[in-house]
Write a structure and sequence with these properties.
223 residues, single chain, 57% helix, alpha+beta, 4-stranded antiparallel β-sheet, elongated, 8 helices
Length: 223
Amino acid sequence: MNFADMIKNSVLEQFNSGVTMGAMFLSLVVAFLMGLFILLVYRQTFRGVLFSKGFAFSLVLLCMVTAVVIRTISSDLALSLGMVGALSIVRFRTAIKDPVDTIFMFWSIASGIMSGAGLYLPGCLACLVLGILYYVITVIYRNHKSPYLLIVRYDPEKITAVKKALHTLPKYRIKSRIVTRNGGEMTVEVSLKNEETKVIETMMAIDGVQDASLVSYESEFGL
């Protein structure tokens, strides 16, 4: 038996080991638990406007389905090649606007792969460490000032008073300024923490300011 035959026999033995019901059930249970943990982390750290329950629950199902696929294709070489060919023609067109949601999907897939491959302890440990570290990052981020867009509509003749009020802010940057015959509008990027009501009251106290509003948003770097 030459070296090529040894490699061939080793590969065939690995793939022809078969899938038992116990191994499949254990992979599903571990994937389900890791998916629930990922769902919990996603729910506790969600910073968007509308929480999508469908996307959150899909993280659990994605982890379980991935575990089933990996466990299935690991039992047969021909089946694994066919599965790769089938998945290569599938196109997922669901738009994901938040990059964090994409990361959670990859996290769920990676956990499902480790569960399907039988790496239960390393998979659970990796999932737990990732969740704790990400939660710590979000807690630290929440203690910092949040970015807002301050939109002020005013009388153009009172622009000096408006600029003077802006100088009282700790940090700001004018994003846009529009002047029409009916009045002026200024959009300012500000960083605030527990000062939202005070800023609105300060701007509305200026003579000539028609209205003022604050809109929470993410800056170019997500900070």
